[in-house]
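Section 5.1 Outputs to date
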Amino acid sequence: METFSRSDSMYGLSIVVTDFDGTLLNSCGEISPTDMATLMELGSKGIIRVVATGRSPYSFERVIPKDFPIDYLIFSSGAGAMLWKEKRILYSTELSCHEVQGVVDELVLHDVDFMVHEPIPANHRFLYHHTGGDNKDFLDRLERYKPFATPYIPGVPFGSKASQILAVLPHDVDWFESLRSRFPELKVIRATSPLDGHSIWMEIFPQNVSKAYGIQWICKKLKVKPTEVIAIGNDFNDLDMLCYVKRSYVVENSPAELKSIFQTVNSNNNSGFTHAVRLAMSSIQP
C-alpha cells in the first residue's frame, strides 16, 4: 500500500478518513455490514482507508475483527499513526517531563480528575488522579482500564514523558475554555465522552498534534493532495481534520454546531459512513 499514488485512485478520490466512535462505530459498538462492505469496496478500488480515532491502538484493536479492512490508523487524536496490517508505528509524539509536570500541577490545583498516559506504544497505560468527587464518567473509564491504571500521588515529581493527558470534566464549556487558556503552548482538544455521551474530555498534547496532522503526514508520504481526501466525523475533536480537507461530512448524530458547518449524512446507526462515501463519489465528475 505504501506505493499508492494519485494516479491509482478512482473518482478523483485517493483517501477516505473516518472517525471511529460515533461515526463508523454505531451505538451498539458495532460496524454495520453496509459500512464494512464499503470499506472492502474502497480497498478494491485502490482507495486508501484511514481511521482517525482518539483511541490508543490497544483500545481500537479490542473492538474490531482481526481482518478489519483499513490501511492506516491515526490514533490518540493524532499523537501517532500506524500502518495497520503491519502494526508498524510511522510516527509518534510526546509531552516532555517539564510539560507533563506543569499540566499536572495546574490540574491538581483546580481539583480536576485526570489521567496521564505513558508514551507510545504503551499509551493504554496511565497514572490517574481522582479528587474524590462525583465523576461517574471518570470512574467508568478507570474501571474499564483498571489493569493498566496506577494512582498518581500529588506532590511527587512526575519525572517521565507522556503521550497525552486526559482530564474528565462536567459538561461545562466555559470551564473547559478557562482551563484551556492555561496551556497556551500545548494542543488542547475538546471531545465528548464516548462513555456517557455528555462529559467533556480535555485531551492535552504537544502543540502540533491533531487528526489533521495525521492526515497531512499520510498525504505527504503518499503524495496525495488534501483535495483528494474526504473526512467523516461526529464531534469537536474532529474539527481540525474536517477543516483540513475540502470535502467533509458529519453524521446526523453530531452536535448541531457541527451540522451547521459541514454537510450532514445519515447517523452512525444508519451507515452514515457509506452515505458520505456515496455522496463524495457522485459529486466528482468522471
